[in-house]
Q: What sequence folds into this?
């Protein structure tokens, strides 16, 4: 639970998220110049974690402990800790206190290769809902942020999703799981979608793809298998910019662990085509 003196207004939480994510992004940038070759793997040989991931998460946890003492942190590399609900949970948000959800580097494979589409993601959630978040790009310094009810921003520019209304003229992004069998099923969905849209993009960073929808750079983004730290900040940025969201765990939805952000004008058509392409079986 947040302590009594904590300010829990979304804009204040957004400021904390931006500050901490920006500091971590600078560390990530520096580490890449010296120690990016220190690489381990997680779920598979293609699922990597670098020295930058570990150093950034340690910094984020330390700074949040200073700025928001007592609030738990759920991170990709170290699980959950730092508050009264220590332990390996999912994203339970058991009470109305603030829980921080962080991805020290979203797009680690891009980071490893020097492909400059990766980011630090920091989100504040309350009652199972993201209320503030920031996604910061180490390679450019660009800052994406949002607070629930206060809009979404890229640096000082207010964000708004595209006005697309035709699926056949829409640019859609996606991503793929690490497991080869699931990748094959996802490829089948893309095969069924490719002839029905303007084009497909696969960048390798869920957080930045969600921000791309917010900016109107993409008309939609979908991906199975994401974890809360992948989307907690970026999905809020997209939602506050006007995107329609579908997040993992949606009650009564047969689409399983699908994450979807889409501009409203093509939402129904996109979902119809995705279902036709077999997305429910992914």
A:
């Amino acid at each position: 639970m947040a302590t009594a003196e904590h300010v829990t207004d979304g804009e204040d939480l957004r400021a904390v998220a931006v500050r901490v994510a920006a500091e971590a992004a600078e560390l990530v940038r520096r580490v890449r110049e010296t120690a990016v070759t220190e690489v381990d793997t997680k779920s598979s040989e293609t699922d990597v974690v670098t020295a930058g991931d570990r150093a950034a998460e340690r910094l984020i946890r330390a700074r949040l402990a200073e700025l928001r003492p007592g609030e738990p942190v759920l991170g990709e590399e170290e699980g959950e800790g730092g508050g009264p609900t220590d332990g390996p949970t999912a994203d339970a948000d058991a009470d109305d206190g603030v829980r921080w959800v962080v991805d020290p580097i979203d797009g680690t494979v891009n980071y490893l290769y020097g492909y400059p589409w990766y980011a630090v993601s920091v989100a504040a959630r309350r009652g199972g809902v993201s209320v503030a978040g920031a996604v910061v790009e180490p390679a450019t310094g660009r800052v994406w942020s949002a607070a629930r009810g206060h809009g979404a921003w890229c640096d000082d520019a207010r964000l708004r999703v595209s006005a697309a209304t035709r699926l056949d003229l829409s640019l859609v992004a996606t991503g793929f799981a690490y497991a080869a069998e699931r990748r094959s099923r996802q490829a089948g969905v893309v095969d069924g979608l490719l002839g029905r849209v303007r084009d497909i993009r696969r960048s390798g960073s869920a957080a930045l793809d969600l921000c791309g929808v917010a900016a109107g750079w993409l008309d939609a983004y979908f991906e199975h298998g994401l974890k809360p730290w992948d989307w907690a900040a970026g999905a809020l940025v997209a939602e506050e910019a006007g995107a329609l969201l579908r997040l993992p765990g949606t009650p009564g939805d047969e689409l399983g662990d699908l994450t979807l952000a889409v501009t409203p004008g093509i939402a129904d058509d996109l979902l119809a085509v995705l279902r036709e392409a077999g997305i429910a079986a992914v």
Notes: Confidence is low (pLDDT under 50) at residues 1-5, 41-48, 82-94. The two ends are 37 Å apart (CA to CA).
